Amino acid sequence: MHLADIVVPRGGTNMVAIDLIVRHVQSQLEERELGVRAALASADQGQPLPKTLSLLESTPQVRGMHTIIRNMETSRDDLIFYIQEADASVDRESALLPPLTGPPSPDPSRRGL
Questions:
Q1: Measured between alpha carbons, how far is 24 from 30 in angstroms, rounded to an integer?
Q2: What sign for the dihedral angle of Cα 104, 94, 78, 57?
Q3: 52-84 pLDDT, tens per residue?
Q4: Where is this region: Disordered (predicted)?
Q5: What is the pTM of this model?
Q6: SS3 for 90?
Q7: 73 or 10: which carries more pLDDT confidence?
């Protein structure tokens, strides 16, 4: 028992204890997620965007797809469809960009990409 992370009294049949543990873990994850999201959101403040970064134009279609993808109530099938549509939009736009130039990547695992 010295390797157990959590000891549940009366084992896996103690649904009250398991439910309490699950709720506690969920609340801890939610608390930490907010802090992480805030840190990520402000991490690039004041930093210039890379010159190689290209943004999709914020068209009604792109905004609509983004809204549907982020909606927690979107069905699984719709989510898959709109993610594939967003991916196709990125592919179409990237085909219009000039090829990247510059020194090859020093990482040998990226050779050929």
A1: 10
A2: positive
A3: 788 888 999 999 999 999 999 999 999 999 999
A4: 93-113
A5: 0.51
A6: helix
A7: 73
Helix 60-70 to helix 76-95 angle, to the nearest 10 degrees? 140
Query: Could you list the residue range(s) of the whole structural domain that residue 75 is in?
Result: 60-95
Please check whether residue 69 is in contact with residue 86, taking contact to mean a CB–CB distance below 8 angstroms: yes
Mark whether 64 and 32 lie in a shared domain.
no
d(C-alpha 37, C-alpha 95), whole Å: 32
Name residues whose C-beta falls within 8 Å of residue 31's C-beta, 6 or more positions apart in sequence.
none
Query: Which residue is it, tokens 């009250």?
Result: 16
What is the structure's pLDDT at 112?
56
Does residue 49 sit within a domain?
no
Q: Which region holds residue 51: left if phi is over 0, alpha if psi is between -120 and 50, else beta?
A: alpha
The distance of Cα 48 from the centroid of its chain, to the nearest Å, equals: 22
d(CA 88, CA 50): 23
